[in-house]
Amino acid sequence: MAVCDRRRSDFIAADYAxxxxxxxxxxxxxxxxxxxxxxxxGVVAERDAGLSISTVLAGHSHLDALVGxxxxxxxxxxxxxxxxxxxxxxxxxxxxxxxxxRLIVEAPGRNIGFAWNGNEHNALFLFRPSPxxxxxxxxxxxxxxxxxxVPQAAIAERFRKNSxxxxxxxLHRLRExxxxxxxxxxxxAPKRENARLRALLAGEQFYANQIERLGSxxxxxxxxxxxxxxxxxxxxxxxxxxxxxxxxxxxxGTPEETMDADGFLKxxxxxxxxTHANSAYGRVMLAKTLGELSP
Length: 295
Hints:
Blueprint: E1 17-19, E2 22-29, E3 32-39, E4 43-48, E5 55-59, H1 64-67, E6 76-79, E7 86-90, H2 97-106, E8 111-115, H3 120-125, E9 133-134, E10 148-149, H4 152-176, E11 181-185, H5 194-200, H6 205-213, H7 226-246, E12 250-252, H8 279-293
Parallel strand pairs: 5-7, 5-8, 8-11, 9-10, 11-12
Antiparallel strand pairs: 1-2, 2-3, 3-4, 6-7
Helix pairs in contact: 4-7
């Protein structure tokens, strides 16, 4: 997205509309109306004023189930099929600062729904640690015997240092940009059967690297018990919800109908990998998300 120049003749109106801490000015380039944004932190950028966009969806890989897996070299908005006024911010696989800065530019006056990470519980704890641990959860009853009992607060701090502290930074920036509504989209529930997860390990490079560092193999690595993984995921959802609320954002949690009686992801919603849900899940979650973001 080009940074606009400062020639006064470019601007359609001399008046600047000020809202919170961002500045808006309209100009015309090659017959197309553009909106220039001077955002907090000195970011100056512009977006197309001609697009009829009510909602922008963006984020990490759990969003793929909702909007399709499309990776492109350059950041671009595409309309979401079958959803009038809803656009998706596509880009490279890695969601770096450039991606989130672009989302900030698209935020003023629009609904913003974004998925953040969602795999912290797997990245940190998919494989059984030594010593093995458990913790008290308000969602999942019971404690394992003969394991170390750790404070839930200690695990919460791991999640914050791993990911959630950075999430706070972007939530703050997005809120400052003045969206109509801001929503954090939660990730799917964990998958129950450890045996089925083990069969998927070979195709997961991230976890294959972890296994190698641990000096083990996909056939022998100990996977954390499903009850512990469920507790970890529930704790992560609580922390996401608290973080969203801190910045006045909506938290859109996993639809109840996608989970079994114990809270695991139903098998019919599994994607063919360790952690993600499929497009059937995505249709349910997308309907919930757009319902939460509707006027």
